[in-house]
Amino acid sequence: MTTTKLPIHLQDSTLYRTQSYINGQWVAADDASTFTVDNPSTGAIIAKVCNLGAAETERAIDAANKAQKAWRARTGKDRAAILRRWFDLILANAEDLAQIMTLEQGKPIAESRGEIVYGASFVEWFAEQAKRVTGDIMASPNASNRMLVMREPIGVCAAITPWNFPNAMITRKVAPALAAGCTVVLKPAEQTPLSALALAELAERAGIPAGVMNIIAADSERSIAVGKVLCASPIVKKVTFTGSTPVGRILLQQSAPTVKKLSLELGGLAPFIVFDDADIDAAVDGAIVSKYRNAGQTCVCANRLYVHAAVYDQFIEKLAVKVRSVLKVGDGFAQAVTQGPLIDDAAVAKVQEHVKDAVDKGAKVVMGGKAHALGGRFYEPTILSNVGEDMLCMREETFGPVAPVVKFTDEAHVIELANNTEYGLASYFYSRDVGRIFRVAEALEYGMVGVNTGLISNEVAPFGGVKQSGLGREGSIYGMDDFMELKYVCLGGI
Ligand SMILES: NC(=O)C1=CN([C@@H]2O[C@H](COP(=O)(O)OP(=O)(O)OC[C@H]3O[C@@H](n4cnc5c(N)ncnc54)[C@H](OP(=O)(O)O)[C@@H]3O)[C@@H](O)[C@H]2O)C=CC1
Ligand SMILES: O=C(O)CCCC(=O)O
Fold it and tell me: Is 421 inside any structural domain?
């Protein structure tokens, strides 16, 4: 653990871990190497984190495998009690966890506090679900047979998580895995390992046994080797990943030789449609939440806004007024800030590229459209009008605070445009016509549809996408299914 002076004040400084966690031990890299983590608001180095690799990952898999037998043998009720202690500890330490998150991820402290509660909700939910695993008895076509179906934990799971939700993407994977009786080896993103390691510290205090939850921190280069080991291992039975579609494809490919089960939460290109019968003020509020949460760095962010011609000017005007009045860019720790920095220079470059491409092709900058005066990784909340389908921001996930607004006139055509993508994660629309609500919700080729709301995520909802946005669902009553196998037992000679 670190004993050097921390860059922030924590009530409990022992949550600020820089070593990885394998088999209940805090460990450094075999070669003692480290990587730096910075504060995206200032660029200041906030930690040197041990940089683990392939050999340490093999040991973590081995530990998870050894722990698996005893963990799965416990009752669901027993596992639930331990998860519940983890949940209580996360909430008891919520302020420290939020401080760590804003420090390494940059999001406004209010959003970090919200994410800790959101992340904890998955631990509570799956602690409850651990007690509710059931099987089935089927009517046999043969009178002398009896047919049973049991649910069993799949075994050792690998989890790879992104930087945009450094807490909730971990709990949304680890909690259902542990509840089901699986053990886990998790690799967080290079940019946000501290939140993951703090969660491991609390897991240890909660009594999660050695080897059941292991965390391997690594920089981007070593992450590739870690990923290869996790995918190639015949011991690992499942990979669960949140991140970009290209990396999802790599993991799928790497897992083919060992025929693993995969859950993939990948990129999105969410359409946000405002029909002419919509409540425009509500649509503006929904667009702000959906587009600018986490500075536009979520996979369910509205990426493409389609607004009916009859309300287009009114919508843009109201959106611009609201963005100016409610969004404040700055350091996530500063008072009243709602928009932190982007995660790194590459993220800023991607946003700049999308805006430049749009402007070059004829888009009009309604507001923003440039780096914020604060400099660094801060980018102005941006609205673009006169947008066309050929622009990059309409074809690729921008992952930044840019709202391209397109005019449409026809319901069938806008559905066609919304569906004209390889992605299928979240979609949104605003309408007060009940017939249209059903028609459009059914026609959108997406895993999730928000109707008259821009915020759809919670622990009860099945989160996930169709097409190349991924495989499987997280959270909800279905979230443990991906961590369990069905076993059919046939009793003969009755
Ligand atoms: N669906 C979503 O929620 C997310 C989507 N994205 C999208 O992806 C874009 C790029 O973001 P980025 O952070 O690069 O996302 P990545 O998909 O590259 O990273 C997500 C996670 O995967 C790890 N990873 C990357 N490559 C490999 C590999 N070959 N083997 C094993 N693990 C790997 C990363 O580790 P490391 O950090 O060490 O490289 C990180 O833990 C964003 O602009 C956005 O469009 C990004 C994050 C989340
Ligand atoms: O962006 C992601 O990777 C997850 C979306 C956050 C959420 O709404 O759960």
Answer: yes
Asked whether the ipTM of the predicted complex exceeds the cut of 0.95, the reply is yes
Helix or strand or coil: residue 156?
A: strand
- Mean pLDDT score across all residues of the chain: 97
Q: What is the pLDDT of residues 228-261, one digit of tens each?
A: 999 999 999 999 999 999 999 999 999 999 999 9
Q: Which atom of ligand 2 is nearest to the CA of 162?
A: 3
Which protein residue's CA is at the shortest distance from atom 7 of ligand 2? Answer: 457
Same domain, 101 and 59: yes
List the alpha helices (DSSP H) in 158-278. Answer: 168-180, 193-206, 220-232, 245-255
Beta carbons of 461 and 448 less than 8 angstroms apart: yes
Residue 457 CA: nearest ligand 2 atom is 8
- Residue 138's domain comprises 13-266+470-488
Distance from the alpha carbon of residue 140 to the mean position of ligand 2, in angstroms: 43
3 has a pLDDT exceeding 70: no
Annotated catalytic, 265?
A: yes
Can you tell me the distance from the alpha carbon of 379 to that of 197, in angstroms, rounded to the nearest whole number?
A: 29
Which of 111, 190, 201, 265 is flagged as catalytic? 265
Tokens found for residue 464: 């996930």
Query: Half-sphere exposure of 284 toward its Cβ, with a 13 Å CA cutoff?
Result: 20
Residue 2 has pLDDT above 50, yes or no: no
Q: Encoding tokens for residue 413?
A: 């055509």
CA–chain centroid gap for 419, Å, is: 22
Q: Residue 138's beta-bridge partner residues?
A: 147
Question: What is the per-residue pLDDT for 5?
Answer: 83
DSSP-derived letter for residue 15 is G
- What integer pLDDT is reported at residue 187 of this predicted model? 98
Q: Residue 488 has which token pair?
A: 């059919």
Q: Please give the tally of structural domains in the chain.
A: 2
Return the closest-CA partner of residue 119 out of 76, 55, 166. 166
In the block, which residue shows the tokens 């008259």? Answer: 452
Burial (CB < 10 A; 0-12, 13-18, 19+), residue 84, is: middle
Instruction: Find the mean pLDDT for residues 269-284.
Output: 98
Nearest by Cα to 304 from 217, 398, 219, 222 = 398
| Residue 340: CATH number of its domain | 3.40.309.10
Contacts of 209 (CB under 8 A, 6+ apart): 24, 67, 70, 71
Domain annotation covers residue 465: no
Residue 278, pLDDT > 60, answer yes
